[in-house]
Amino acid sequence: MAEVIFKIFRYDPEKDETGRVQEYKFEPQPGWTVLDGLNYIKWNLDGSLAYRRACRHGICGSCGMTINGKNRLACETQIKDLGTSVITIEPLRGFAVIKDLIVDMEPLYDKLYAIKPYLITKTPPPTDKERLQSPEDRKKLDGKYECILCGCCTSSCPTYWADRNFLGPNALLKAARFLFDSRDEGFQERIDAIDDKHGVWRCHTIFNCVEACPKELNPTQAIVDLRKLVIRGRL
Amino acid sequence: MSEYKGMFKVGECAKYYGTEDAKVIHEEPKGVSIHNVHQHDAVIVGAGLAGMFAALELKKAGYDVAVLTKLFPTRSHSGAAQGGIAAALANLEEDHVEWHFFDTVKGSDYLGDQDAIEMMVKEAPKIIYEYEHMGVPFSRTPDGRIMQRYFGGHVKDFGRGKPVLRACMAADRTGHVLLHTLWEQCVKNGVRFYSEFFVLSLILKNGKCIGVTAWDLINGGIHVFQAKATCFATGGYGRCFSITTNSHANTADGLSIFLRAGFPLEDMEFVQFHPTGLAGSGILLSEGARGEGGYLINDLGERFMKRYAPDKMELAPRDVVSRAEWQEIMEGRGINGQQYVYLDLRHLGAEKIKERLPQVRELAMKFAGVDPIEEPVPIQPTAHYSMGGIPVTISCRVLADGKEKWLEGCWAAGECSCVSVHGANRLGTNSLLDASVHGKRAGKDMVAYLSTNPVFEVLPEDAAEPAIKEVEWLLNSNGPERPAELRKILQENMYTLCGVFRKKEDLEKMYDIIKDLQERYKNIHIEDRGTKFNTHLMEAIELGHLLETAEIIVAGAINRTESRGAHYRTDYPKRDDENWLKHTLAWRTEEGVKFDYKPVVITRFKPEERKY
To answer: What pLDDT, on a 0 to 100 scale, did the predictor assign at position B25?
Structure first.
């Protein structure tokens, strides 16, 4: 493969007043992902480069970053698919930068905690048996339960940039994952958080989250579905 | 370099998550000195299934429990498990825990301890129902029960029958949903997490474990965690090998911390190679792909498993299939003579692949550029699971001498431990089960221990000394060696010299390489000298762990002159029950690796030849 240039956002809280861009040139092997490129830099050119990574196959959600202006997982993005030899890599927008490509994800998690991200039930489950759920009811969770908490959606959301109290696509998708689960009985517990000016009504259906989601989920659809649920529930 | 004109707020350093409601005893300046001392009834190291299950048990019993993880909990590698979790629920056809018991014993090549296995398979259905009650989105049968699929080595009628539907599944994201659901339950119950805290050492006093030290990755600084009960759940060590399914984080930290404290590890020579890793990277394609009926094909287009396991074919256990693949490759029948064969799913049809194996398809497309609906997928054996680990009792208490003596105050569970339920080879879907059952058992036993009201021991003056020394040394290191270079030499050689097939000369060569690398490691340097999120420091510490653990693996492999389960010696191709039906215990000493042994617990099934 031909030589590429990675233009990477750098910021060291112990040295830098503000962020800067550093360029690295190298020749990637065929089949390399952006994460392979970052690893190559870290292991051969500059050991000080800081980024998060773990599973390297798109399930742990550690390596969300902005690559050529779009939020993606570095581990799933083939360098050749970017179609350019100059590749810009920046930390996820909307979160405070800790160092280089590492951002503070705590605000993302805080929004999740706000919607009570766990199954809420009142009917006791059967003893030593599973609760029953029809395949049709289970199918309603498809497109919702697969979220890996990478933050690509919320970080891409202009509404979230403007309103840091907006629950954001990530937390609202998670709320939908439970509210559309036939086993869940937590509508009342969650309604106040989502039926709020910082909840489902804040979404302007910009659809950036849909484009950003590396798991091809549709948080905007989930938010629209939640709005219907809220209205029906309030009636 | 140019100044950055972007839209980021920088310098707004993350708030410190560690101290809000923890009891801070004293505070010292940040840096490499001790930053904080925290006290918790129980401290868990690692936030995968085992760690979080233990934490949940403790929290529900009302104890103050803290979970330390070098990642964020949902980034743990349990989440990468795809195919399923085994339990004889018999939701779709006849199945019995006794059959599961037998299959696990046979799969272990009779090295598994049968009392532990029996307990695990009996608790399996209960733990699945508990998961369901927590909210795991399992796939469902037409009548609404938990869906189950086939998996290698799980069969009917004490090994005599056909494959059985035993692997409880959520599409092919089973580990992901279990991990996220456990985390959700921890959030619900208010379990306290210290995310991105990297544990460095054990704190011992009068033969008791009284806590751990950890490095705060975000802010820098050593923290001392004082606990009445400490549990390690740090996972495996696949990163000793270049081709592995394991996360970058699976670097044997927990195991080597025990070695350094002078404790033995058990059965470390047994490393499972998964037969379906994507060629080149080793990324895991679920065994579910074979469970659903996928074929393995060589360069001649043959289903070559007919020569190695004529009865079970592709559904033979992992060690058997991995060796078959390697044999085909060595005999020149790899695809185009290369080091890989094909996994062919095309005959399953687009609909089945999309519904039952969506992640397999996604991984093949993203990382190999191959759509399994259209083309066969290139695959090769990949280092996957560590059967060995920290020796523990059936209640997950760490054995200081590997045999009988409990290291008071200390537990271990999941892949980092060796109970042993997997013996010489683990069956697919038994790992999620092991992590869950033993995480819970560890938690329960810790609750029982805490209910006897043990006290916090006074910390020794030098509690954090080894940790401080290690970090200080690395932050000031300026030798000529680069950590990445040493790691690469280790990993690539481990894959070829201590992999699917092993022999004396290769292993001895590998041992010399490791000794040389350990010497070179003393002269490394790191390129980031800061204390804030220093990932180069972390990589260097992890490399130290890998080098020590690899030494134990290789020494054990040299020592065990037989072939059993995942450990295959071409110079000793037969299983030798007369001399080797026993567990290895290995200590790392100044004079090299020291060995001792303990008998296998055999209660019900006498060892017989393992054929599939």
So the answer is: 37
CB contact under 8 A, A60 and B76: yes
> Length of chain A, please?
235
Q: How far is A32 from chain B (nearest CA, A)?
A: 9
- Quick one: pLDDT band at residue A78, thresholds 50, 70, 90? very high
Residue type, B171: A
Q: Compute CA distances B388 → B42, B103, B418, B549, B575, whole Å.
A: 25, 19, 5, 11, 18
DSSP string, chain A: ---EEEEEEE--TTT-SS-EEEEEEE-PPTT-BHHHHHHHIIIII-TT-----SSSSSSS---EEEETTEEEEGGG-BTGGG--SEEEEEPPTTS-EEETTEE--HHHHHHHHHT--S----SPPPTTSPPP--HHHHHTTTTTTT-----HHHHT-HHHHH-TTS-HHHHHHHHHHHHT-TT---HHHHHHHHSSTTTGGG-----HHHHH-TT---HHHHHHHHHHHHHHHH-
**Parallel/antiparallel/unpaired status of strands B192-195 and B65-69:** parallel
Chain B window 308-367: which residues touch A at a Cβ cutoff of 8 Å? 359, 362-363, 366-367
Which two structure tokens, joined as six digits, stand for B430? 């038994």
B190 touches chain A (CB under 8 A): no
**B345 pLDDT more than 50:** yes
Stated pTM of the model: 0.94
Q: What value does the mean pLDDT take over residues B148-169?
A: 94
**Angstrom distance (rounded) from CA A182 to CA A175:** 13
- Chain A 141-200, CB below 8 Å of chain B: which residues? 141, 145-146, 148-149, 178, 181, 183-184
Long-range contacts of B593-598 (CB under 8 A, 24+ apart): B593/B551, B593/B552, B593/B555, B593/B556, B593/B559, B595/B555, B595/B556, B595/B559, B596/B264, B596/B402, B596/B403, B598/B402, B598/B403
Give how far A108 is from chain B: nearest CA, Å: 12
Give the burial class of B143: count Cβ atoms within 10 A of its Cβ; 0-12 exposed, 13-18 middle, 19 or more buried.
Answer: exposed
CA distance B147 to chain A (A): 10
Cα→Cα distances A33→A29, A61, A73, B80, B359, Å? 9, 15, 10, 19, 18
> What does the block give as tokens for B462?
């030098």
ipTM for this prediction: 0.98
The pLDDT of residue B8 is above 80: no
Q: Which of A202, A14, A184, A210 is nearest to A99 (CA)?
A: A14
Chain A from 123 to 142: CB within 8 A of any B CB: 125, 128-135, 138, 141
CB contact under 8 Å between A42 and B283, yes or no, is: no
Contact B48, B172 (CB under 8 A): no
pLDDT number for residue B32: 58
- Please report the residues numbered 52 through 111 in chain A whose beta carbons come closer than 8 angstroms to any beta carbon of chain B: 53-62, 76, 78, 90-91, 93, 96-99, 102, 104-106, 109
> Which letter does DSSP use for residue B315 in this model?
G
The residue to which tokens 């047994």 are assigned: B270
- Return the residue in B78, B168, B535 with the most chain A beta carbons within 10 A, the one to mutate for interface testing: B535
Of B1, B71, B484, the CB nearest to A54: B71
Active site residues of B: 318
**Which 3 state secondary structure label does DSSP give B152?**
coil
Q: A57 to each of A227, B366, B432, how far by Cα in Å? A: 34, 9, 19
